[in-house]
Amino acid sequence: MRVLQALGWHLSAAQRVYAAFFLYALALGGLYPRMAEIQQSMGVAEGSLGLGLIGTASGTLISLTLGGPWIERLGAARILWLGLPLVAVFYALAGFATQPLFMFLSLLPAGICIGAVEQVVNLEADRVEFALGRRIMNRAHAFWSIGFASAGLIGGLAAQCGFTPQTHLMVMVGVLVVLVGVLLGKFQAAKPRPQSELKAREAVVHFAWPSSAILMLVAATLGAMLMEGAGIDWSAIYMRDVFASSPFICGLAVAAGASTQAVTRFFADRFVERYQAVRVARSLILILGVGVCAVTWAQAPWVALLGLALMGVGTSAIFPLAMSAAAQRTDRPAAVNVAALAQTSFVIFLLGPPLLGWVAEYFGIRATFAVSLPLVAISFWAAKSLKS
């Protein structure tokens, strides 16, 4: 333990940001590879399951909208120390759900914690990026994907070894507590970007209404956000219903997109610097469209897994690029623009799970992915807003 603490406590500012993103994803990623089993134990259809899953998005939206003063009061370090373990705790409670309402009530406070952590980690990444004078936002989000892929693989292995979802998720709570203490025990918030004291107060106090420029950034993320959520929520159930896959393959389906997403994000900053954000974003959106088509019309499990992997590539850098573009705008403080983008984008997560659940229930699980194709086209057009 002392060796681990020594390694964790001597991390650089950028490495602490990477660690925070990794733990953030690890905390919330354990539930989804076990979703097919949890749905079976609840005995509900996809539409009702989607209504339970909306708890996370509802809590996140509440936190992003109203949590600014509390986040400022508690500080970044306390938000991470308290918020990350609590996310794991509430997700573990959701694993015990016997009906959608119980799941909703378990995921609502998890979403409140997620909203606070979401603001902290993205603002920290932007501030460290500014202090270093080089891009780290996409690499930071790569570590989020690594954490989520790790959670998917752990969930798949736990299912294959016969551990119940409840046991698996409770063990993950202990793992998170230890890792947060080791890697973030001496976390210190980075200094804000230079801005006036008045604007800093406005960033904390006022509701972050999206400007027209932020709405364009939201449009650029539409397809990626919806399909990232669909891959998280429904890929395990898709593999079970369409191909009668084993629990491990269902968990692998969740990890497939996150793994390719992680690799792409890790190298995305270099491509953005070389080829510019708009070209990179449109290339990724085209890959996303190919992946969605592959999943929609797959006739073999390996084709579906390949499609999910392509979706991971396609969704990899769109939201991080939008976050960077929002933070770099000079019309309002960075915190306001980042919060406005996050608030508005999470409406997609708020509406997406129940709508996709009802689509799956009445039109089949394949249609859950097919419905995003028009939004992918809109995102391709709106990607022009990602110019620095």
Task: Produce the secondary structure layout.
Layout: H1 2-9, H2 13-28, H3 35-42, H4 46-66, H5 68-74, H6 76-94, H7 100-132, H8 137-160, H9 165-184, H10 197-205, H11 212-243, H12 247-275, H13 277-297, H14 301-314, H15 318-328, H16 334-363, H17 367-370, H18 373-382
Helix pairs in contact: 1-9, 2-6, 2-7, 2-8, 2-9, 4-7, 4-16, 6-7, 6-9, 7-16, 8-12, 11-12, 11-14, 11-15, 11-16, 11-18, 12-13, 12-14, 13-14, 13-18, 15-16
Estimate the global geometry from the Cα principal axes. Answer: globular
Which percent range describes the beta-strand content?
Answer: under 5%
Low-confidence stretches: 196-206
Oligomer: single chain
C-alpha end-to-end distance:
44 Å
Number of strands: 0
Order of helices and strands: HHHHHHHHHHHHHHHHHH
Q: Pairing-aware structural class of the strands and helices?
A: mainly alpha
Largest sheet: none
The count of helical stretches stands at 18
Mean pLDDT: 86
Task: Give the helix proportion (percent range).
Answer: over 70%
- The whole-angstrom Rg is 19 Å
Structure description:
- By secondary structure, the protein is mostly helical.
- Helix content is 81%, strand content 0%.
- It is globular.
- The model is unreliable at 196-206 (pLDDT under 50).
Notable characteristics:
388 residues, mainly alpha, 18 helices, globular
Question: What's this entry about, in short?
Answer:
The chain is an all-alpha fold. The protein has helices at 2-9, 13-28, 35-42, 46-66, 68-74, 76-94, 100-132, 137-160, 165-184, 197-205, 212-243, 247-275, 277-297, 301-314, 318-328, 334-363, 367-370, 373-382.
